Amino acid sequence: MSVSSILETARLRLRPYEETDIPDLVALIGVREVAATTLRIPHPYTERDARDFLAAIVRGGEIRHAVTLRDDDRLIGGIGLAVEEPQQRAELGYWLGVPYWGRGYATEAAQEMIRFGFEEIGLNRIFASHFEHNPASGRVLRKLGMRYEGCQRGHIVKWDRKVDLELYGILQSDWQSRVK
Fold first, then answer.
1. In DSSP terms, which residues pair with 90 in a beta bridge?
2. Which candidate, 135, 20, 12, places its Cα nearest to that of 76?
3. How far apart are CA 144 and CA 111, in angstroms?
4. Residues in CB range of 124: below 8 A, 6 or more apart
5. pLDDT for res 4
6. Which residue ranges in the chain fall short of pLDDT 70?
7. DSSP collapsed to 3 states, 94-150
8. Backbone phi, then psi, for 24, in 5-degree steps?
9. Which domains does the chain have, with CATH numbers?
């Protein structure tokens, strides 16, 4: 498993984060709408948060990539897999800056990350969840071929509000039958 792999799709490049991404990270993630749809992104998001995020990537444990446009390497979001090797599974997570919502970028990036997880890491299962108030993310997960697996009611607290998580998953065998 290489965290330094660069993955490409028709429109996107998924590459390791760089220190030069910090200003764009702060600008894109610093918007309340982005933080409201994610578990681990605080609001406000500061340069210190971005530096801590990059340092955590270096310490390892997860595959985290910047999502950039292939044409100009402009940062538009992030994607990652939290791999649990003994269980041959990973949790998929992603975010996009608001100007890039609704253009199919999340689906395109996630399709490539799922391919990477199954083909190059050898995972058996990839799963993801979204906040109940973020149905757009549920649509992305269904487009990826993930199956709805249930709701964890009041599972997390985000900004002093109990939030339900909608759970999805896909097995390698499901994915292989979709790509053949």
1. 83, 126
2. 12
3. 6
4. 88, 89, 171, 172
5. 64
6. 1-4
7. EEECHHHCCCCHHHHHHHHHHHHHHHHHCCCEEEEEEECCCHHHHHHHHHCCCEEEE
8. -70, -35
9. 7-179 (3.40.630.30)
